[in-house]
Write a structure and sequence with these properties.
It contains 14 helices and 21 strands. By secondary structure, the chain is of the alpha/beta class. The chain has three domains: about 10-150, Alpha-D-Glucose-1,6-Bisphosphate, Chain A, domain 3 (3-Layer(aba) Sandwich); about 160-345, Alpha-D-Glucose-1,6-Bisphosphate, subunit A, domain 3 (Alpha-D-Glucose-1,6-Bisphosphate, Chain A, domain 3, 3-Layer(aba) Sandwich), CATH 3.40.120.10; about 350-405, no CATH class. The strands form six sheets. Strands 1, 2, 3, 4, 5, 6 and 7 form a seven-stranded mixed sheet that branches. The protein has a five-stranded mixed sheet with strand order 9-8-10-11-12, sandwiched between helices. β8 (about 170), α6 and β9 (about 190) form a beta-alpha-beta unit. α1 (about 25-40) packs across α4 (about 115-130), α3 crosses α5 and α8 (about 245-255) runs parallel beside α9. The termini are far apart.
């Protein structure tokens, strides 16, 4: 039987058909399963990322769970994690993150952290036990207290350097809730990706969109968030600092002797850090896996190639705006060429990523990555890396990465 949840979340198509993966009936079953997992007498946080289906998914989930909610309305994933952390309540983020508007999703958290694997297994079992979902149960909702809303902005203001307001930024908000956050903090900055379908040709999935504009207008920095604003891609002096290059830079800025990454990272990251005596600790893809290992290793920073960057001292999830302002503060506290000297030491392995579509019902039949890798991983392109393959955590795809020391 196919597993519904991965990394404490579930995603799938929702375009108004009964055959949709996240149709009304399945969302209702998930709502009832969540209530049975965390207890029907617990208050919950709930928000959505502003995609077209967000409000209806939120309402179906609420009415099928019969729980009591503090409803934060449209907000970023980091805001939802902050509200959960501050109140020490469980919560639900109605979001499909970087996926397009036809995809819906639900992320589950508890006390400001991704739910544990054990809690996820209980949720999975409770959802499967429900033969069908029941919509229309009594559910109470309360408005988000203003002090919670303002509290999130205070965490961001604490990391914003006093001179940052004098700088020229361009922000791509992916047509998502990052727009409201950005307008609040930097009302005079240029913001693109403000209106339209979420992630529709804009945002961190499409860094070239920001790069084209920044190359013409030459800001101090450009930042591109994804739909729920937990990812970020950075434009700096004519180059895009994407996942692995950013991890390299941040690790050296923080003077860490080791950093937690994921198995999807470019071999060039490991090689470049190894030359500097820095250990990379790879884990399976997913924020929960990264944070767990970071806490075990006692490191402040870790991240993954996709653009999720995590700070132990901040939230239990990645936060695109926090990461952006942390980077700006690091830049302003050093001489103007410090970043360039660090980045000159990074030597990437270029790679081609192939995304092989897998029907959702067949995805679980690829039981382990090893079965596919046994066919492709024998082919060594360099002495330090092999072809990598893994099932996507968020889409019905198998991702194959083919590395090379040159662009050719």
């Amino acid at each position: 039987m196919n597993k519904l949840f991965s990394g404490g979340a579930v995603r799938g198509e929702r375009i108004g058909k009964e055959t949709d993966f996240l149709n009304d009936e399945r969302i209702a079953r998930i709502g009832g399963g969540w209530a049975g997992t965390i207890g029907r007498d617990r208050l919950n946080i709930i928000i959505d990322d502003g995609r077209t289906t967000g409000p209806e998914v939120r309402e179906i989930f609420k009415s099928s769970s019969g729980l009591e909610f503090i409803d934060g309305g449209k907000a970023t994933t980091p805001q939802g994690f902050f509200y959960s952390m501050q109140t020490q309540l469980p919560g639900v983020v109605v979001s499909a993150s970087h996926c397009d508007d036809s995809t819906a999703g639900l992320k589950f958290l508890d006390k400001g952290q991704h739910i544990t694997e054990e809690l996820e297994e209980r949720l999975e079992e409770n959802v499967r036990r429900a033969a069908n979902g029941q919509i229309g149960k009594e559910s109470k909702s309360h408005s988000l207290p203003n002090e919670l809303y303002e509290g999130y902005f205070k965490t961001l203001e604490n990391v914003i350097h006093p001179n940052a307001k004098k700088m020229k930024f361009i922000f791509d908000c992916a047509n998502g809730p990052a727009r409201e956050v950005t307008e609040r903090l930097f009302p005079d900055s240029k913001i693109i990706g403000k209106y339209g379908l979420i992630n529709d040709g804009v945002g961190a999935n499409y860094p070239e969109h920001l790069a084209d504009i920044c190359d013409r207008e030459r800001p101090d920095f450009g930042f591109s968030f994804d739909g729920d604003a937990d990812r970020v891609a950075v434009w700096y002096k004519g180059r895009m600092l994407l996942g692995d290059e950013f991890i390299f830079l941040a690790t050296l800025l923080l003077e860490q002797d080791k950093v937690v990454i994921t198995e999807s990272s470019n071999g060039g990251l490991t090689n470049s850090l190894k030359k500097l005596g820095i250990q990379t600790i790879p884990v399976k893809v997913g924020e929960r896996n990264i944070l767990t290992r970071m806490q075990q290793e006692g490191t402040e920073f870790g991240g993954e190639h996709s653009g999720h960057f995590l700070f132990n001292s901040h939230l239990g999830c990645s936060d695109g705006m926090y990461t952006a302002m942390w980077l700006v503060s690091q830049y302003l506290e050093r001489d103007p060429n410090a970043f360039d000297r660090i980045l000159d030491q990074y030597q990437p392995l270029y790679k081609k990523e192939l995304n092989v579509e897998i029907p959702r019902e067949a995805k679980q039949k690829v039981e382990t990555d090893d079965k596919l890798l046994s066919v492709i991983s024998f082919y060594n392109f360099t002495s330090n890396t092999t072809v990598k393959g893994r099932k996507s955590n968020t889409e019905s795809k198998y991702r194959v990465q083919i590395p090379s020391p040159s662009r050719e």
